[in-house]
Amino acid sequence: MKIKEYLKLAIPFTISTITQPLLGAVDTAVIGRLEDPSYIGGVAVGTVIFSTMYWLFGFLRVSTSGYSAQALGSGDEGKGILALLRPAMIAFIVSLTFLILQNPIKYIAMELIRPDADVQRHALTYFNILIWGAPAVLLNYVLLGWLMGRKLVKASMFLQIFTNILNIVLDIVFVMYLKMGVEGVAYATLIAQLTSFIIGLYLVNKRLDYSLVKSIQREFFDRQVFKKIMAVNSDLMIRTICLLTVTNMFIAKGASLGTEILAANAILFQIQYIIAYFFDGFGNASSVLTGSSVGENNLKNFKEILSISNKCTLGLQIIMSLVFYIFKDDIISTFTTIDTIIALGKEYHMWIVIFPFTIGIGLVYYGIFTGATYTKPIRNSMILSLLLFFAVYFIIIPIYGNHGLWLSFILFSLGRSIFLALYIKDFENKIFIENINKAS
Questions:
Q1: Any idea what DSSP says for residue 431?
Q2: d(C-alpha 140, C-alpha 193), whole Å
Q3: 134 Cβ neighbours under 8 A, 6+ residues apart
Q4: So where are the chain's domains?
Q5: What is the mean pLDDT of each run of 10 residues along the chain (440 residues)?
Q6: What is the CA angle 328-391-48, rounded to 5?
Q7: What's the maximum distance between 2 C-alpha atoms anywhere in the chain?
Q8: What's the pTM value of the predicted model, to 2 decimals?
């Protein structure tokens, strides 16, 4: 495999995935045009609540993509259908649970974050509207993961780009023209979520061979397969819990430092999301290609993918860091017109300059490991990174305040990269060499 072939997959995935954080950035930028920083804080807190809920079950997309890619590599269409139906059942059950437990969820969230009264009011407005999109969001994770695993790049791009652009347009119309405030942001997102699910269902339905459904009915509830799926998903859920613990502690500590710090951190966090999603696009490409290599049991092809992933990651790290460093003033000012928030954003901007070099390998290797559905190293590396975060968080923040908060986050990101990279040799032995020995 050549870099050109890798980029043919990575660039479309990056273009499609980057619309997601851009959506959050537009939410923040549109609300940031309103005079009171509590609007930004309210959307930030509301976003954290849904991130906590949905990221916890982000494995529905990630593991679906891995199993779908492996089925494609092995040429087994029956397994391809099962890779869709099994996680879809889980997504449906979980989303109904969210709807039933919505009142306890928002109560617990407010007790944990404890934002100012105005921020809490806006956050609850956002939550009460957007909670009804839960079934569409989780089921769409499965639909998108399945399309990506099948290397259906155009369909994946269309699904994400169209619905996110729709969300952005509705954001601008509802907030800036109809003056709907936080409600406008929430309704724009809800409409986009429902639209995304409908389009995703249509795109997947076109590609399903229903003649195979009867032949796979007995396999659907295979205990051993479900045991493996649950083990993979449990590892990914633990990984997400670690990530959400860091995110929530970061937001909560920012809130305790004042509404203006909370707003400035929210803007910088949106910027780091955008950077992270660029790497996530490369990670998605590495995931699909790795999954296909595992399905084919092709170690040579995997080593080529790993080498190309490393080179592309380094190039992207340099580009991301330089772009933000050179255009930091313009980028920060895009999110808000409030001078005090802009000044605070500039004060802490160097942490975002450093960020790409700490997170790049962690996100791209995450794609590699999930593509093989070998998830124990992901779980272990995240637990170690979380422990590193705790150590810095509780020792440094009392001394350096918000700079200490950002330092703890940056070291957490660096830990994700270093600890996971240490498992690569074990990955090759476990996934390829052992299988080759068994086959011989």
A1: I
A2: 8
A3: 53, 95, 98, 99
A4: 3-439
A5: 81 74 66 73 81 78 84 79 87 94 91 83 90 92 89 86 87 87 89 93 86 71 75 88 88 86 88 89 90 86 93 95 93 86 91 96 94 92 97 93 95 97 91 61
A6: 55
A7: 69
A8: 0.79
